[in-house]
Amino acid sequence: MGIVVVEVCDGNAITKIDIEGIIESEFPEVAVLKNECLAFCGLCRVRPFALVNNRRIFGKTVEECLDKIRAAIKEELAVYQ
After folding, report:
1. What superkingdom heads the lineage (predicted)?
2. What is the number of structural domains in the chain?
3. Cβ–Cβ under 8 Å, residues 30 and 61
4. Of 1, 11, 14, 32, which sits most exposed with the smallest number of CB within 10 A?
5. How far apart (Å, rounded) are the C-alpha atoms in residues 57 and 47?
6. Residue by residue, what is the 3-state secondary structure of the chain?
7. Confidence of residue 79 (pLDDT cuts 50, 70, 90)
């Protein structure tokens, strides 16, 4: 398990890309977990989002969300450097 955990909902638009492969290849210390539901009812249908160490990260597009996830991961990792 990584020191940073990214959680995504199976029903979310962010899963249209290989979020797990992308993030885990760029950041080996990060674990990506796919869940059936993250219990943020309706948010997954409205816009792409993920949880980064339990902090909600979302964007208007998949690409914007992915960029924000990367930035949040870098913030979390900065604590350990």
Report:
1. Bacteria
2. 1
3. no
4. 1
5. 10
6. CCCEEEEEECCCHHHHCCHHHHHHHHCCCEEEEEECCCCCCCHHHHCCEEEECCEEEECCCHHHHHHHHHHHHHHHHHCCC
7. confident
Residue 1 pLDDT: 45
CA atoms within a 13 Å half-sphere pointing along the CA-CB vector of 53: 14
List pLDDT tens digits, range 45-74. Answer: 778 989 999 999 999 999 999 999 999 999
Q: Is residue 67 part of a domain?
A: no
In a domain, 74, yes or no: no
Is the distance from CB of 6 to CB of 14 less than 8 angstroms? no
Q: Do 14 and 50 meet the contact criterion of CB atoms below 8 Å apart?
A: yes
Per-residue model confidence as pLDDT tens digits over 16-36: 899 999 999 999 999 999 888
Closest CA to 20 of 32, 12, 3: 32
What residue has token string 């955990």?
Answer: 5
